[in-house]
Here is the input.
Amino acid sequence: MKVNLSADVLDVLVTDDGTSAVMVGTQVLVLAPLPTLLVGLIQTGTRDLATLARRLDALAGPPVGTSAQAATEALIGQLEGAGVVAVSH
Amino acid sequence: MPEPILVRTLEQVVAIHLHDEAEELEQDVRRAWSRCLAPDATDAGRIDVVVREHTRPRRTSTTVEASSPQAAMELLTQAVTLAGLEHGAGRLLMLHACGLVEPVSGRAVVLAAPSGTGKSTAARHLGVRWGYLSDETVALREDGTLVPYPKPLSLREEGRWKTQVSPDDLGLLAATEGPELVSVVILDRREDVTPEVVPLSLSEAVARLAEHTSYLPALPRPLHRLAQAAPAGVAVLRYASTADLERRLLPLVQAAA
Here is the structure.
C-alpha cells in the first residue's frame, strides 16, 4: 500500500491488543504494537533515541533477534527519510 | 408536468421533478420508491429528471439525464442515494451495506460489501424473513441509532441498466422500529468455499470497514465512530450461497443477546 505522507493524520485508534488504526487522508493503516508505541512516543515529544530505547525495553522488550535501540534507530531513520519526523542529531 | 415526488433518502428529503418524456415515469417512480415516499418536507433537496432521445446518460445529486426510461430509473436511484450521502456527510457514519433486522429480537445486522458482490441478492433473499433496511447504504447517527433507507432494489436482469424494484413488490418485510445494530459483517462471496465466520481484531475491523464507507474523513474522530458501530464486533463472512448466509447470520444475532 502506498501512503500519502503529506496527508493529514485524521484519527488514531489504539486498541486493547496494542495495535492501532491510523487514518491518513482517506487511507487507514493498521500498525503493530511496536510502531504504535513509537508513534505514540514521537507524538508525545520523545525524540531522544536513548530514552526511547529504554522506554521500549521497559514496555515491550526488543524485537527478537535485534536490540530495541537498533530497531528504534532503523525505524526513526525510515520515518525521517520519508519526511514523517525530523530528528536533531 | 406532474407534481414533484417527495422521497426520503437517509435524513434528507428530495423532490423529484420529472420533465419531458420522464413525466411518463411518475407511476414507476412512485411504485419503486414506495417505502421512501415522504408526505411533505421543508428544506427538501431537488432532483430534475430528463429523458430525451440521444441524450448521453449523466447524473449528479441534483440532475438525471438519460435516453431511456430504464436508464433514468437507475440513474435516479444513484442520484437520490448521492443526495442522501452528501446531506449526511460530517454527521452520519455511512456504510456501503445491506441492512437487515431479525424480526423477533429487533436486532440488526449490517452486511458490508463492494458493489456487485451480494448486497442486493442478500437483501432480496433474506428480506422475506428479516426486515429490510437497505440494500445499498446503512447509516448510523452519533448516538448509534440506525437510519433506514429502504430504497428500491437494483436488480441485474437483461440489458445494460439494472431494474429498480420496490421492496413491496418483492415481498420484503418492513424493518421494525428502532432496530439495534449488533453485528457488522463484511461479505466475501466465493464459489466453492466452505462457509466460515472470521472475527477481526478491532484495528483490522476499522481498517476493513473504512473501505466500505462514504465521506468518512468528513466525520469528527472517524475511526472512533467506526469502532462504536459494532459493539459486538466485526467479522468477515465467507460464503458461496445465500442459504449459507442466513445459517451463519442467525447465530451472530443470537450471540449478541
About this structure: Residues 19 and 33 of chain A are 5 Å apart (CA to CA). Helices of chain A lie at 33-43, 49-59, 68-81. The two ends of chain A are 30 Å apart (CA to CA). The first helix of chain A runs from residue 33 to 43.
